[in-house]
Design a protein that fits this description.
It is elongated, with a radius of gyration of 38 Å. The longest helix has 25 residues. The protein contains 33 helices and two strands. The protein is mostly helical. A hairpin with a 4-residue loop joins strand 1 and strand 2. The N terminus and C terminus are likely disordered. A two-stranded antiparallel ribbon has the order 1-2. Belongs to the EFR3 family. This is Protein EFR3 B. It comes from Ameca splendens.
Length: 736
C-alpha cells in the first residue's frame, strides 16, 4: 500500500505533502514561505506528527545530499530550523533528535561549506530555550567535531579562517546548551575540557584584532566558558590550559601565557580566583626541575594573576603561597651554584637564567603581598624573616650543598623579598609594623660584614618607619636640603609612637652608629643612612628624639675625626657629609633659629675651604677626596657647646643636660655576640648544634647541656633565652 501511495501523490500522508510543497522547482528560489507557514501550522495543530515530519525532512535532506543537490539541502535544513523555533512543546525532543542526526550527517561530509552550514544551524538551536528537559541527548560528537574544526588546516587561508570561526561558534553553542542544564552531558568533565580548551587556545595564539577573527571569537567563547564555571569546575578548566602551555613551550617569553591567564582571572567569579593561584603554584612545584625560562614564565604569570586578584583573599593558605615562592628561590640558588637544574640528566643552567628567575620570584612576592590586608602583610614579613638565616639563631639553610655562598645568596634574596613587602606596607602604628620579634633579628643584620645585606636592611627599616612616603622625596643628599619638600607631622607623637621610642629608639640609634663604622660602606650606604635619619626625624618628632639624634650626629662627627676604626678617607669624609646634611634637616624642624644659623655657617665654611665634607661632593660618582690625609679644623665642625647655647632659653632647655653628655653606644650582649658574625659562623653554629643533637638524643636547651668551650652554642643559648623573655614580656603586655 505504501508503494501505491508513493506513486499516487494525492494518497500520500498530509504531512509528507506539506513537506514536499515547501521545496520549489528551482532551489535558487529558496523556501516556499506560504507552504512553510502551512507546514508550521499543521505541526503546531498536531504535535504528535512532529517526529514524523522531522524524520521525513531528514530523509529528504539525506537524499538531496547524496545527489549533491546542495540547494535543496539548505532548504530542508532551514525548514527544520523554523519548526524548532516555532514548536515549544513536549514533542520537540523528537524533532531535536532528527535535527541533530541531520547535523551529524552534514558535519561528516567532505564539503567545508556544509560544515559551516551545519554549525550555523546548531548555533541557532543552542539559543533556543527549551521548555522540557532531555534525559538522553548527547553532544559528545559535536564537542569532538567542533574542536577538530578549530584545528583546521585548510589549504585556502580564507576557508581555513571560516572553518575555525565556525568551530569556535559551535563550541560556544555546546557550552550554552549544556552548561546550565544539569540533565545534559557534563561539559566540565576532563574528557570534554581536554578537547575544548586546547581548541580555543590554539586560535587564541593568533593576534588578529579584527572583528570575526578566530582570536576575537575565541576570547569571547573562552570568557563565556570560564564565567559559567562553578567552584568545582575551575580545576578541570585550568588543567588543560597548563598542559597546553607545557606541550607547546608557551611559558617562555610569557606573553601568551600572561594574556591567557589575564583572560581567566577577569572572567571567573572573583571568589574562585584563589583556585587559579593554587593551580599555578602546584604547577610551579611540578616544574621545579624544568629550565629556568619555564619557571620564570610561570612565576611571571603568577605575578600578573596576583595583581588582578586584588580582593585580598589569596585563599585559606596564605603563607603556603609565600612558602612555595621562597622554596623556589632556594632551589634556584642550588641550581645556580651547581650549574645544573637536573643532576640526574645533567641539564645545565646559567647564572643569568637563574638570576632572571630570582628577580621574577621576588617581584611576585611583592605582588602577592600587595593583595593582602595590613595584618596579613605583617604575618608575611614575620614568616619571611623566619626563613632567613639569622646570626645566632638556627634556621633552615636550604640545601647542604649550597655552602657559605649559597646561604649568603639566600639571605640577600629573602631580604629583597622582605623589601618588596615592606615598600607598600601601610600602618599607622610603628609597634605593629616593627614588633620586637621582627625588629631584633632585622637589626642583627646591620652587623653583618656583607655590604649588600646591610644596605637592604637600611632600606627595609626606612620603608617601614616612613609612613608618609618621604623617602621617595629625598632624591639627593645635600647640605642645603629643604625640609619643606617633606610631608611633616602636624600633631604630636601618638601614645603608640612614644611607646615605640621608649622601647626601641636607643637600639635603633646604636645600630645606626655601628653601621656607620663599617669599613666597606659605599655611597649608597651613606645615602640610605641619611634617609633613615631623615625619616626618624620626621616620623618621631619630639624634643627627646631630636636631642638624641643631635647627640648621635655629634658622635658620628667624632667618629669621623678619629681613626680608631681604621676608616678610609672616603668613609670619614662621608661621615662628615652625613652629619652636615642631617643637622641641617633637624635645624628646620622647629628648633631655635640660632641653631640653624650655626649649622648654615659651618656648611658655608666647608663650601669655601673643604667641599669634600659635604654630601654633594663626596656622595657622587666622582667623589672629591683630599690628596693627603684628612684634617678638619674646628672651624668646619659642629660645636656641641654652641648647639647647647642655641637650645638654651627654648622649650629644649630641659634637654640641654642630656645634650652635654656625649653619646656613647652601649653595646648589648647580643651585639657583642653578633659582632662581625659571618655566614660561615652561622653555618658552623648549625653544624655544632646538629653534632650535639646527634651525640645526645635527649639534649635539652639549657646551659648544662652545652659545651662551655663552644662560643657558638653559648651564643645560641643566649639568643634563645632572650627571645623567650621577649615573648613572655609581649604576652604580659598584651594581657594588661
Amino acid at each position: 500500500m505504501y508503494g501505491v501511495c508513493g506513486c499516487f501523490w494525492a494518497l500520500r500522508p498530509r504531512y509528507k505533502r506539506l513537506v514536499d510543497n515547501i521545496f520549489p522547482e528551482d532551489p535558487e528560489d529558496g523556501l516556499v514561505k506560504a507552504n512553510m507557514e502551512k507546514l508550521t501550522f499543521f505541526a503546531l495543530s498536531a504535535p504528535e506528527k512532529l517526529d514524523r515530519i522531522a524524520a521525513y525532512l531528514s530523509e529528504r535532506l539525506t537524499r538531496e545530499l547524496n545527489r549533491h543537490r546542495y540547494g535543496y539541502v539548505c532548504i530542508a535544513l532551514e525548514a527544520i530550523e523554523q519548526l524548532l523555533l516555532a514548536c515549544h512543546c513536549q514533542s520537540i525532543n523528537l524533532l531535536v533528535e532528527s535535527f541533530l542526526s541531520t547535523l551529524r550527517l552534514l558535519l561528516e561530509a567532505e564539503k567545508a561549506h556544509l560544515h559551516i552550514l551545519a554549525t550555523n544551524s546548531f548555533v541557532k538551536f543552542a539559543n533556543i530555550e527549551e521548555d522540557t528537559p532531555s534525559y538522553h541527548r548527547s553532544y559528545d560528537f559535536f564537542v569532538s567535531r567542533f574542536s577538530e574544526m578549530c584545528h583546521s588546516d585548510h589549504e585556502d587561508p580564507d576557508t581555513k579562517i571560516k572553518i575555525r570561526v565556525s568551530g569556535i561558534r559551535g563550541l560556544q553553542g555546546v557550552i550554552r546548551k549544556t552548561v546550565d542544564d544539569e540533565l545534559q552531558v557534563n561539559i566540565w568533565e576532563p574528557r570534554h575540557m581536554e578537547q575544548i580548551v586546547p581548541a580555543l587556545l590554539v586560535n587564541l595564539e593568533h593576534s588578529h584584532s579584527n572583528s570575526g577573527s578566530p582570536a576575537e571569537q575565541t576570547e569571547v567563547c573562552f570568557r563565556e566558558l570560564l564565567g559559567r564555571a562553578a567552584y568545582g569546575h575551575i580545576n578541570n578548566a585550568i588543567k588543560p590550559v597548563l598542559m597546553h602551555l607545557d606541550s607547546h613551550s608557551l611559558w617562555e617569553g610569557g606573553g601568551f601565557a600572561v594574556r591567557c591567564f589575564q583572560i581567566i582571572m577577569f572572567s571567573i567569579q572573583s571568589q574562585h580566583s584563589h583556585l587559579v593561584i593554587q593551580q599555578l603554584l602546584g604547577h610551579l612545584d611540578a616544574n621545579s626541575r624544568s629550565p629556568a625560562s619555564i619557571r620564570a614564565g610561570i612565576v611571571e604569570v603568577l605575578s600578573e594573576a596576583a595583581v588582578i586578584e586584588a580582593t585580598g583573599s589569596v585563599g585559606p593558605t596564605v603563607l603556603e603561597v609565600f612558602n612555595t615562592l621562597l622554596r623556589q628561590l632556594r632551589l634556584s640558588v642550588d641550581y645556580q651554584l651547581t650549574g645544573y637544574y637536573e643532576n640526574a640528566g645533567k641539564q645545565m643552567t646559567t647564572s643569568a637564567q637563574e638570576k632572571t628567575l630570582q628577580d621574577a620570584v621576588i617581584k611576585t612576592i611583592g605582588s602577592f603581598a600587595n593583595t593582602l590586608p595590613v595584618y596579613q602583610r605583617s604575618e608575611v614579613m614575620l614568616f619571611i624573616m623566619g626563613k632567613i638565616p639569622v646570626p645566632g639563631i638556627y634556621p633552615a639553610l636550604g640545601s647542604p650543598n649550597a655552602g657559605f655562598e649559597g646561604s649568603r645568596m639566600i639571605q640577600v634574596m629573602l631580604l629583597k623579598s622582605l623589601l618588596q613587602v615592606s615598600e607598600r606596607y601601610e600602618s599607622s602604628n610603628l609597634l605593629t609594623a616593627l614588633p620586637s620579634s621582627f625588629l631584633e633579628p632585622l637589626l642583627s643584620f646591620t652587623l653583618m660584614e656583607d655590604p649588600e645585606i646591610r644596605l637592604l636592611v637600611l632600606s627595609i627599616l626606612t620603608s617601614l618607619i616612613d609612613r608618609r612616603q618621604n623617602a621617595a622625596r629625598i632624591t639627593k643628599v645635600s647640605g642645603t636640603f629643604d625640609v619643606s619638600v617633606l610631608e611633616q607631622k602636624e600633631d604630636r607623637c601618638s601614645r603608640q609612637d612614644n611607646l615605640f621610642i621608649r622601647k626601641h629608639a636607643q637600639r635603633l640609634y646604636r645600630h645606626v652608629y655601628l653601621a656607620c663604622k663599617e669599613e666597606n660602606n659605599g655611597p649608597d650606604h651613606y645615602k640610605a643612612l641619611f634617609s633613615l635619619l631623615a625619616v626618624l626625624s620626621v616620623e618621631l618628632v619630639n624634643e627627646e628624639v631630636l636631642v638624641d639624634l643631635i647627640r648621635l650626629i655629634l658622635a658620628l662627627q667624632e667618629l669621623g675625626m678619629s681613626n680608631q676604626e681604621n676608616l678610609s678617607v672616603f668613609n670619614r669624609c662621608s661621615l662628615h657629609a652625613i652629619c652636615a646634611a642631617s643637622l641641617h634637616l633637624l635645624s628646620q624642624l622647629g628648633l631655635p633659629p640660632s641653631l640653624n644659623h650655626h649649622v648654615t655657617q659651618v656648611i658655608e665654611s666647608r663650601q669655601k675651604e673643604q667641599p669634600q665634607l659635604l654630601p654633594e661632593n663626596i656622595l657622587c660618582d666622582q667623589p672629591r677626596l683630599p690628596k693627603e690625609d684628612l684634617r678638619v679644623d674646628k672651624a668646619f665642625l659642629f660645636v656641641q657647646s654652641k648647639i647647647c647655647d642655641a637650645l638654651t632659653g627654648s622649650s629644649y632647655s630641659a634637654q640641654c643636660e642630656r645634650l652635654n653628655t656625649p653619646y656613647t653606644p652601649q653595646l648589648a650582649d647580643e651585639d657583642r655576640l653578633s659582632r662581625k658574625i659571618s655566614i660561615s659562623d652561622t653555618v658552623s653554629l648549625q653544624t655544632a648544634i646538629d653534632h650535639e643533637s646527634s651525640s645526645d638524643p635527649q639534649v635539652c636547651f639549657c646551659v648544662s647541656k652545652f659545651n662551655r668551650s663552644s662560643p657558638h652554642l653559648l651564643m645560641f643559648h643566649f639568643v634563645l633565652c632572650r627571645n623567650l623573655r621577649l615573648i613572655i614580656f609581649e604576652t604580659l603586655e598584651n594581657t594588661i
